[in-house]
Amino acid sequence: MSDIRLTEASSHMRHGSNIGQPLTRRDGILKVTGQARYAADNHVPGMLHAVLAVSSVARGRVTFLDVEAAKRHPGVVDVMTPVHKPRLAEDPDAKTHPFMFRLELLQDDTVRYANQAIAVVIAETLESATEGAALLAPRYETQPARVGLDGDKSFAPPAVGVGNPAEVRHGDVNSALTDASMRIEATYETPAQYHNAMEPHAIVAAWDGDTLSIDTPSQGLAMAQARIAGLFGIPPSNIHIRSPFLGGGFGSKGLISGPQILGIMAARLVGKPVKLTLRREQMYGPVGHRAPTRQTLRVGMDGDGRLTAIDHHARTASSSFDDFFEPAADASHTLYASPAIATSHEVVRLDTGTPLFMRAPGEAPGSIALESAIDEAAWMCGMDPLAFRLKNYADVEPITGKPFSSKALRECYAQGAERFGWARRPLKPRQLRDEAGFLVGWGVGTATFPALMFAADARAVIRADGSGLVESGAHDMGQGAWTALAQIAADGLGLDLAQVEFRAGTSDLPDAGIAGGSAHTATAGMAIHNAGAAVTAKLADLAMSDERSPLFGAGNTGVIARDGRLYRRDDESWSEDYADILTRAGLAEIEARGKGGMDPAAQSIYAMHAHGAVFAEVKVDPDLGQVRVSRMVGAFAAGRIINPRLARSQLFGGMIWGISFALHEEAVMDPRSGRLLNANLAEYHVPVNADVPSLDVLTVEEHDPYVNALGIKGVGEIGVTGSAGAIANAVWHATGFRVRRFPIRIGDLVVPASD
Ligand code: MOS
Fold this sequence. Notes:
Layout: H1 28-32, E1 48-54, E2 60-64, H2 67-72, E3 76-80, E4 110-111, E5 117-123, H3 126-134, E6 139-142, E7 154-155, E8 168-170, H4 173-179, E9 182-190, E10 202-208, E11 211-215, H5 221-232, E12 239-242, H6 258-270, E13 274-277, E14 293-301, E15 307-319, E16 341-350, H7 363-380, H8 385-391, H9 409-420, E17 432-433, E18 439-450, E19 456-463, E20 468-471, H10 481-493, E21 500-503, H11 520-544, E22 559-562, E23 565-568, E24 575-577, H12 578-585, E25 589-596, H13 600-605, E26 609-620, E27 627-637, H14 644-663, E28 695-699, H15 718-735
Parallel strand pairs: 1-13, 11-12, 15-16, 20-21, 27-28
Antiparallel strand pairs: 1-5, 2-4, 2-6, 3-5, 7-16, 8-16, 9-14, 10-11, 10-13, 14-15, 17-18, 18-26, 19-20, 19-25, 22-23, 23-24, 26-27
Helix pairs in contact: 7-8, 7-15, 10-11, 14-15
Bound molecules: dioxothiomolybdenum(VI) ion.
C-alpha cells in the first residue's frame, strides 16, 4: 500500500523495544482528516452503481419481477436476476471448506429470509439504480415464516468450523446434581443481535478479462480471495483485493458475503466496474448476526459453597440452509472448578439469514448466563459473589484437566476489586442508595476468551540503506493492526519504527490469516516476528562468515539485532551496522519469510485462555426502573500487551459491548412476517456516549511462554464476556430483581402498582 502514508508515532525508543509502547494509531491522522479511503470511497472511471432489490417476505418464492419497468427507467443499464446473470463455476450452496458461508447469489427464485437479494439493478447513478430497484414491484408465493426459538423442532448440530462438539461431558452431572446439598436451575434468554459495523459492506469491482480488482472491507483477505476464485473459476492470483481500512467488522466481514459477490457478478454482467454498497437495513440478513439463545443452567453446590455440578444447555437457532450456531454453553468449559460439567446445544432452523461469529461468539451470551447463575448460586450459599468465585477457582481447565499456560485471574479479581472498592459491598440486595435516591448495585463477572492462533505468513526485508520492510496481508478493522503489528515488525528487525516500512491490507501480500477470534495480533505478529528473526539471522550469517566483519567468527556465541546493528552477544563492543554488512556483500537487500501459528505440542499440554474480572456499578430509578451503568472497572490478564493504549481501547470497546448486551441490543422479529421490526440504528439500540460512564481498565501482568514466543493472548473480544454478567448482577444487587431475559428492560425493574 504505497499510497498509504502512515504517520510515525511520537515515541523514539532506543534499545529495541517498540513492543510495549503506548503508541498512538499510525493511521489516526488519515482517519480523523478523512483521508483514509474506505471501500465505498473509491470511484473507478466508467464505474456503474448497483443496488440490491431485497425480499420483503421471509420464506417462499419470487413469482414476478417487473424487470421491463426497471430497465425502462432512465439511467438503468441492466437488471441481474436468477435468469439473467453471469455463470458461476461453483454452486454457492456447496461447502468445500468448514469456514464457508452458503450464499444467496440469485441461484433461483427461492426466498430464504427477509432482506435476501432477489435482483440487482445496475445503473449510471446510484439514484437511477435505487429507483430502478423500487420499480421491480416483486410478487411472492409466501409460506409461513419459522420465527423464534420455538419456531421449529430442534436437532443436535454438528461442530462448526474449528468449534467444539455440540455436547461435551466431564463426570456425571445428573448424579452430582441429585447428591448436591443446594442446587439452582435457571433459564436465561439472549436476543438476536446484528453486528452493525459503522461501515456497511461495500465493494467496487472491476474486471479486466479474467483478472479482477476489488476494493472491499475484509477480515480475511486470503479466504475471500479463495472463495471468489472458486465461484468465478479463476486462479486466486488473478484477484487483487484492497482492504486498507475497515469501519468495523465484529465478525461480519470475516467471510465474504453474498452482496459483495453480487457486486462482482454485476461487474461481470455489464463489463464495466461496479460499486455496490449495502444500505443499513440491508445489513440485517445477508451478512450474519448473532443467533438468539435460551440457556438453562443447573448448578449444584455442597454445604461449603463448592460447586459439584454445572450443566449448561443452550437452545439456539441457525438458518434453514446452513449450520452455524452460537456455541454459548462452551463458556462453562473453562471458568469454574467442578467435578461434573456438561455442556450441550440444540438448534432450530429459522427463516433468517445464517448467523455468524459476532463479538465473542459463544462466550458473550454464554458467560452472561453462566455469570448470572454463579451469582444466583453464591446468593443461595449466602456468600459474597467474589468470594464464591474464588472458592471455585479453577486451577486447571475443568473440562480437560489440562494446566493453564498462564492464568492471572486471581490477580485480576484482587486488583479489580481493590480499584472498585468491592470490600464495602453489602451482601444483600437493595441496600445502597445514592444522594438522589437511586438504587445502587454492585456486580462482578468473570471474563474468559480462548487464546487462539490461526496460520499466517510474513516477509521481512533489510535494505542496504539500513531500513526495513515488512509485508503481511493483515487487516486493521479499527483494532490498531497498522500500529501494533508494525511495533512487532520493528522489534523483529531490530530497528526503530521510523526505519520500517510496514505493508498490510492487500491480498497480494503474504496471507495473514483471519482477523478474528482475537487471534490476529498473535498470529500475524508471530509470522512477522519470525520473518524478522529469519532475515536478521541471514544477515548475521553474512557478517560472521566474512573476515572483514568485526563479527567474524561470532557464530558460537551468536549476535543480537538492535538499533540497526548486530552485536556480539558475549561482547557488545564488537558490532556492525546492517548497511555496512549488506554494502560490503554487494547486496541491495536481503529477505526472509516467517510463519505464525499455534504450537500443537504446547496445545496438547496446556489450556490457553485470557481472563479478566469486571466490576460494575448501576443506578436504578426505583420508580421508573431506568438503569444507568455508573462505573465499571475491568482487570484483564491477556499475556503480553503489545501496545497498552490500543489494548485499553479494545478492552473499553468490549466492556461497552457488555453494556450494550445487558441493556440495549435486541433485534425484534415480527412473528407474523419474519421481518425485523428494528432494522435501523434508530431502533436497534447501541450505547451512545451518554450510556457509557468513564471506564477503568487494568491490564494485569502475565508472562506466558507457551501461547507463542511473544506471549500474546489477544484482547479483541474478552472485554464483552464478563461485562454483561457483571451489569446484570449489579442490577440484581440494586433492585433485588433477577432478570434472566436480555436486554434488561425498564419494565423488569419496577414493582407493579397494586391498587
Ligand atoms: Mo470476531 S467475531 O472473531 O471478528
